[in-house]
Every structure is written in C-alpha cells, then in structure tokens.
Amino acid sequence: MTFLTLKGLTKKYDDAESPCVNGLDLEVERGRIVVLLGPSGCGKTTTLKMIAGLTEPSSGDILVDGNSIIRIPTEKRNISMIFQKSLLFPHMTVAENIGFGLRMRGVKQAIVKRKVDEMLDLVKLKGYGGRKAAQLSGGQEQRVSLARALIIEPDILLLDEPLSALDAELRVEMRELILSIKEKYNISIVFVTHDQAEAVMLADKIALMVDGKIVQYNEPQAFYSRPRTRRVAEFFGWTNFVPAIQKGKVVTCSFGEFIFEGLEDHDGPICLTIRPDAAILCPQGEGYRAVVRNSMYMGTWIDYEVDCLDARLGISLDSNYIFQKGEELSIKFVHTKIWAVRCDSNSICDNRVVWENSIPSKTVAVKTQTE
Amino acid sequence: MAKNRSRSRIPILVFLYIAILVPIIPIVMWSFAFRWPYPNLLPTWSTRAWDYVFSQPAILSSVGTSIVVSTLVTMLTLIIGYSAAKALGTREFKGKTTVEIFILLPAIVPVISAVMGMQGIFIRIYLSDSLLGVVLAQTVFTLPYLILGLAAVFKNYNMEYEQVASTLGADRWKILTEVTIPAIFPGLVVSCLFAFVVSWSQYLLTLMIGGAAVNTLPLELFALMTSQDYPVACAVSIIFILPVLILLGLTSKFLTTNGVAKGGINQI
Predict the structure, then answer these.
(1) Are A238 and A314 in contact (CB under 8 A)?
(2) Is B261 on the interface with A (CB under 8 A)?
(3) In chain B, which residue's Cα lies nearest the Cα of A76?
C-alpha cells in the first residue's frame, strides 16, 4: 500500500534558471526503503527537505496516507530527518538529545527516561546517556542522532547521506542498523545518497535522479538488468555498448536479432549493453569467433579485452580460465544479461565512439603495460 | 603541563590587574580625602564626600534611573536587534554590505549631529523629557554594537540545528528557548553587555532628549565634575564604574573570544 506519495513536486529557486526539482512523482510503500540516488546537485536533498517541510515546494503535492501535508508545519508532520552531520545539540547530554522530541511533545519525565534507555539500547550505546556530544566518536554521534529521530516514532524517516562522513567499517554497522530499524518499526524510509553501491545494498526500490527528474524508479536488480538509458547503464557498473538498430520490437546488430521483453517499441538507433559477465569464452565450440587482445589478472577474476565481429568487448571471467593474448576462441552470450538502451540525446551511438567513451580504466592500464 | 601554563600566565595577569586597578586607586583615595594639596603623597582622610553623596537624594535616585534606563535600553536593543543580527550572520543576500554600513551609522556619526534633529522630532511627538524618549533615543545608538556583535556570533552558528529541532516537533518558540539561545548564550551575554555599557555612559543624548526630567548618573557626574569638588566627583565616579565592573566580573568567563567560541555551536 502506498504510504507516501509525491505528485508533480517542483521546486524552483528565484535566482535559478531551471527548477532544482522538476515535476517529481514518487510512491513509497509502508515499511520500505526508497533510495533517491543521483549526482550532487540533482535535487535529491531539496526533495527530502520538501517532504520534511523545511523547504516550500513551488508546486505539486505531498500525500501521507492519502492526506496532503503541504500546509502542515514541519513540527507537526511527524517526519524525522537525519542529516549528513549528526547535529547533536552541543549544550545537551546524549540522553537529553535523544529525549528532545518527546520533551517537545510534553511527555512526562519518567516516560521520557524509560524510552531514552530503550533507544540507547537499540543503538548499542547503553551507559552513554550522561556524555556530551563532543565526547562521542563520529559513528556514535550518528547513532545518537538516529535514536533521537526514532524516539518520536515518526511516520517517515528521511536520511540525507547519513553515512558519507563515516569510515567504511562504521558504514556497514550503520547500514545494518538502518535495515534492522526498518524491520522493527515498519516505517517508510527515504534515503538520499550519491553512492550507487550503498543504494543497491539498502534499497527496496531506487529512484535515480538526474537534473531534478527521476530517470528510473525500480528494484535495484532492474538497474543492472534493464537500465532505461545509456547513462543509467553506465552509472551501475561498467558495461559494453554495441550499436544496433531497433525496428518495432526487433533489435538488430552484428550479433544477430534480439527481442527484449519489456523494451519500449521504437524505430531508430539503439545500443546493446553487454555486461562483462554476460559472455562465456571457450577454446572451441559454437558461437562467434573472438580474438583475445589483452588480459589482466584481477585475483578472483580476469578481465579480457576481445575482438568479436566489429566490436571490441570487455569480458570478465573466472580466473580458472586462462587464455593467451592472440588466442582464438568462441564466444557465447547469456541473453538475460544483455539489454538495449536508448542513447541519451547528446551521445552518438557509433561503435568507435562508444568504445572510446566507455573504455574502462583497467583496460587502459593493460595497454600501457604491454606496450 | 597545566601548572606550567598557569605559571606563565602570572605576569600577564599581574600586568592586567595593574592596568585596570592602578588608575582607580587615586580615585578611591580622592573620594576619602578631605584635602590633598600638591606635594603631599597622601591626602588628609575624611568621609565627608561619601557622607555628602549618601545624603543627596538626587544622586541616589540617578543611580536607580540609570539602572532602569540602561536595562530597558538593553532589552529593547536585544528585541529589535536579534532578528537583524541573525539574518546578517546566517544569510547571504543582495546589498548585505550596504545594510551593514547603515546599521553601523549610529556608531560612526557623532551623537551631537544626530541628536539635534532627534530632539526636534521627539518634541513634536511628545517623547522629549520622558524616560521612554531617552530609552528610544539611546537604543538607536546601542543597536549597532549589539547587532554586529551578535551577527559575528551567528556566523559560527549552524542553522541546521533549528531544522533538526523542528522535525523533532519544536515550534518557533521552543527552538528559540531550547536550541538557539543556549547555543549562542555566551555571545548573547557579551553583546548585551556592550549595549548596556554604551547606554550606561550616554551623557549628551540623555541631556538633550530627557531634559531635566530624566536624571541619570552621567548627568550628575558631569555636574559634579564642573563643580570642582574633587572628593565628591570621585565618589560618584566609583558608583558610576562599580555596576560595570560587577557585570564584567559576572560575565568574565564569556568575555574572551575563547569563551564565546566554547559556548557557541561551532565545534563540529
């Protein structure tokens, strides 16, 4: 069931030429984590602040459980927000910080104390209640701010890159904490990040935002298997592009004809995206003929650069299979890992250009080594 | 370590005490003098001046008037100046420098050139010769000190604290009392102290706007200074500087930039 709905949400700052958030539509279900993913400046934080009521939208509507909240002031929305910095009030102890929301609601002292203890337990900071914010580490601070946000039992929890200031280890810890909280409280979470890996690990659904618009809204897997545009495909891991022509449902390229279920009908140029793990190389057998150009040993896998028909492809294989440079092989494709993407308006779907543009840095490294 | 540091501070402290207290010693001695003719190192002692001061209702009531006026001025300055200081400290907008210069103007322009015009206006709107008139007039000249002082404090203040507080259910009033004021408290106290001291020592404004109706301590002091009765003038001088010294003592822990920084929200 949809719990939070954004309808045509738009924000244009007076001094800006184009809107920062442009007609955003989004539906978030109860008990789910939606990650707003996008490069900095794409409007994801502004969207979050509009949901919290900290920024007023230029137009559009925000519904919680079917009711518009656009006229409700921030303090009455019951939507908690966690910022990049922990922002613990420095003149209060940890316990006072956590209890802040309840005190604002006029809850009795004894109940506040009990709930604060529960929260300290939840974020694994038992016994830290009497400390000041300045006496905590970065990870502890962010956990306190999480406890402070959760104690008011918010309908929606908003997180604005809360992990970006933390070390790798603490991130894992905090991520697990967030996931366990989702289970425990069954609340809707909107999480903002620019880190694609973080998004994939946390999200039930990802909304990829570029220039104030949602480019794709799907489960994380779909961004790998069925990206909507070339830029989306590139954003989610390295991939090969092969130029093709689409006519109706049929996509034709030098590798043959493909029909992709769920691909929009369209006439014109298109790109096949072939993930590095979409191909199997064998010394002989059926399939296309491929010549190994370069290889790089990566430990558990090996990256090969092969020429196949008119394309040059980057292929990753299990390091059990070792092939030599110049070796002739046969190549087969796993069709579920191939997809077709429309080129973004400004990029040309030309084989040479595609290759040069998307050439992975690791392949470049191989070249300089062998020459 | 700590011991070493406190030992190295001793000369500085001694210097400070000498610089502040030594000029006061002759004043104290004069106030207890009967006569102090030229070559004598010490005066002939007497409590005549103090007896006289405490027997004069005009002097005693002027102390009360001064306290009332300066307190009211400080409060009014704070109420008016707070929002301006917050806007200047936390926001960027077009023409900010111009606004800042306009706010500074009362501190740059000599009081005398402004007070002539003000007096005419105040007479017309029946504010001259009244306590309210004096308070309003002084507030114009204390505002720049408070606004610019407080704006500097707000520069170190992160507005996101207020956003967090509001998502946690704090309304504007609760944000002000529970988050903002505690966060800027030391800077707030120091800025108010500036406003109080500026108001406390106003002479010309009080004289022109208040006429004879509002008799503050500086007016009494100036009258006595010209009367050539040195012991009495010095006794009143001590009464004049005493409240300021007491306030300084009470707020001393906030007074250094370090103290202001420690209290303000800027560690993160």
Answers:
(1) yes
(2) no
(3) B169
